[in-house]
Specification:
Protein name: Lysozyme g
Order of helices and strands: EEHHHEEHH
Largest sheet: 2 strands, antiparallel
Keywords: Antimicrobial, Bacteriolytic enzyme, Disulfide bond, Glycosidase, Hydrolase, Secreted
Enzyme class: hydrolase
Number of domains: 1
Organism: Chunga burmeisteri (Black-legged seriema)
EC number: 3.2.1.17
């Protein structure tokens, strides 16, 4: 995996397998805090035909289930909520950890996935999701 940084080419230390292992460890550490949101996550997932594990994984990775947030905001006050909605692109609905907010962010996710699927219909589901 090669990335360009400041005009220089460097080898990335990130690999898909190593990244997946890191995500798994983070999610395992966050599982206790995720239980608080189990019902809203499952309800949103059912309504949008998403895997609840996908929503939970995003919540874990984006905000560590709220652990990294200050009253719902990231440190730079640019992103809001458990799933870290960018305030330049969207006006947040609901309280940062509400079902309404999880639904808003998950709906945006579904729309984005559908756009990728429309542009790349021959890609596998895994490729489209990434």
């Amino acid at each position: 995996n090669v990335r360009v940084l400041d005009g220089r080419v460097c080898k990335s230390a990130f690999s898909y397998a190593a990244g997946l292992a890191t995500v798994r460890r983070t999610a395992e550490a966050d599982v206790v805090r995720l239980r608080k949101y189990e019902i809203p996550i499952k309800r949103v997932a059912r309504n949008l035909c998403l895997d609840p594990a996908l929503i939970a994984a995003i919540i874990s990775q984006e905000s560590r289930v709220g652990l990294l947030l200050d009253n719902g905001w990231d440190q730079g006050r640019q992103k809001y909520g458990l799933m870290q909605l960018g305030r330049q692109q969207h006006v947040p609905f609901g309280v940062w950890d509400s079902e309404e907010h999880i639904n808003q962010c998950s709906t945006i996710l579904v729309l984005a996935i559908n756009e990728v699927r429309a542009r790349h219909p021959t890609w596998t589901w895994d490729q489209q999701l990434r």
